């Protein structure tokens, strides 16, 4: 009799759990109304509670166990089964569609694409793409775990934010899908110049990522990072990659614990490069009056690099920390110190912009 009782408890508990999961699935995907889902769950929960009638004679312990299980399911309902209010959903949808229409997005078509992505085998509509459709769904029909967070936001603020995000994701998808838009140069040969960047203890990963992008576009030979500077496969690599957009995987790079170690590397493997620091000092010269070496190698494509050693003349450009600048201890070791004249009160610019100006001038000369 004990085995029969145990089997009955396990069976009905499994049924109640399946009903709970099934109703959550229906609610999340919009296949049934909230009331229908709750009715399904309540039906099986009632069956579990009725087990007490079956076990009421001589099985006091089993009755207590059944009461405990019933109470557990009631608590599960109260904590995990948060349902979305249809009026709140309609409000979110209406405001989102309003802001989408202001951005020129066909909100009705997007809603239809979202519905079809869940109910058919067509996949995601090519007009919007997967990310935009999932973002739409995340706001209009959020997961139960996200309902409280969504409900706590001001509707117009959240709807406007999601609309702008959806608009961007849809445009990005169409750009990536367009065959006539060239995101990567078809040529596999990357032209390089005898120009090396040394990043001396820069702190911003986003800033360093921008430098990598600009350096790759300018055809720099390599980038040397020192100290706390974020670098690929090291500290801050994830944030760096977001602004570098793949340039960090193309451009050769090395990291050194100190800037002096980087200078020793240059002396051994790049013996003919001019060491130029970018800093505002009393002895700084204008960046465009310096005669930079390496013009012949750059113009003739005769950049000689053998066994990782470059014998061609070139330039190593040192960029310092955003606040303190280039390390003063190495200033006397540099061949030249240059600056870009400012017309405003600030005596510095973002390092990535400075690098673009200086690299362009060095390549030109």
The first-to-last residue Cα distance is 96 Å
Please report the number of helical segments: 15
Structural class of the secondary elements?
alpha/beta
Helix content range: 40-55%
Cα Rg: 32 Å
Number of strands: 9
Low-pLDDT regions: 25-35, 51-69, 73-81
Oligomerization category of the chains in this entry: single chain
Give the strand content.
5-15%
Determine the mean pLDDT. Answer: 75
Sheet with the most strands, sense and barrel status: 7 strands, parallel
What does this structure look like?
By secondary structure, the chain is an alpha/beta fold. Helices cover 54% and strands 10% of the residues. It has helices spanning 2-29, 34-49, 51-54, 60-80, 86-102, 107-119, 130-140, 147-152, 155-177, 205-218, 237-244, 247-250, 259-269, 295-300, 351-364, and strands at residues 195-200, 222-226, 253-256, 273-278, 285-286, 305-306, 309-310, 314-319, 336-339. A 7-stranded parallel β-sheet has the order 3-2-1-8-4-9-5, sandwiched between helices. Strands 6-7 form a two-stranded antiparallel ribbon. Strand 1 (195-200), helix 10 and strand 2 form a beta-alpha-beta unit. The longest helix has 28 residues, at 2-29.
Structure keywords:
single chain, 365 residues, 7-stranded parallel sheet, 54% helix
What's the gist of this structure?
The chain is of the alpha/beta class and 365 residues long. Helix content is 54%, strand content 10%.
Helix-strand layout with pairing:
Layout: H1 2-29, H2 34-49, H3 51-54, H4 60-80, H5 86-102, H6 107-119, H7 130-140, H8 147-152, H9 155-177, E1 195-200, H10 205-218, E2 222-226, H11 237-244, H12 247-250, E3 253-256, H13 259-269, E4 273-278, E5 285-286, H14 295-300, E6 305-306, E7 309-310, E8 314-319, E9 336-339, H15 351-364
């Amino acid at each position: 009799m004990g085995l029969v009782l145990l089997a009955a408890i396990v069976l009905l508990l499994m049924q109640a759990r399946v009903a709970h999961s099934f109703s959550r699935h229906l609610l999340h995907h919009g296949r049934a109304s909230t009331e229908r889902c709750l009715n399904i769950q309540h039906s099986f929960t009632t069956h579990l509670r009725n087990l007490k009638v079956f076990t009421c004679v001589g099985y006091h312990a089993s009755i207590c166990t059944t009461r405990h299980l019933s109470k557990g399911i009631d608590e599960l309902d109260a904590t995990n089964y948060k349902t979305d209010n249809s009026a709140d959903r309609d409000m979110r949808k209406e405001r989102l569609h309003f802001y989408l229409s202001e951005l020129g997005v066909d909100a009705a078509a997007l809603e239809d694409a979202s519905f079809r992505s869940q109910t058919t085998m067509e996949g995601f509509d090519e007009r919007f793409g997967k990310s935009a459709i999932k973002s739409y769904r995340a706001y209009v029909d959020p997961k139960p775990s996200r309902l409280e967070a969504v409900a706590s936001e001001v509707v117009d603020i959240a709807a406007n934010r999601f609309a702008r995000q959806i608009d961007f994701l849809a445009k990005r998808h169409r750009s990536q899908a367009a065959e006539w838009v060239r995101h990567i140069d078809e040529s596999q040969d990357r032209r390089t110049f005898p120009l090396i960047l040394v990043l001396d203890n820069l702190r911003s990963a986003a800033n360093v990522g921008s430098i990598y992008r600009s350096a790759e576009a300018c055809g720099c030979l390599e980038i040397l990072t020192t100290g706390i500077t974020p670098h690929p496969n090291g500290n801050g690599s994830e944030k760096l990659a977001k602004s570098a957009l793949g340039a960090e995987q193309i451009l050769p790079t090395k990291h050194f614990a100190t800037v002096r170690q980087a200078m020793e590397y240059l002396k051994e493997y790049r013996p003919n490069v001019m060491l130029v620091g970018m800093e505002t000092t009393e002895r700084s010269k204008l960046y465009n009056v310096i005669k930079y070496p390496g013009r012949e190698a750059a113009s003739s494509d005769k950049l000689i690099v053998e066994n990782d050693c470059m014998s061609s003349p070139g330039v190593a450009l040192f960029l310092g920390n955003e606040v303190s600048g280039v390390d003063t201890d190495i200033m006397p070791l540099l061949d030249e110190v240059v600056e870009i004249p400012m017309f405003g009160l600030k005596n510095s610019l973002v390092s990535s912009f400075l690098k673009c100006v200086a690299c362009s001038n060095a390549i030109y000369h």
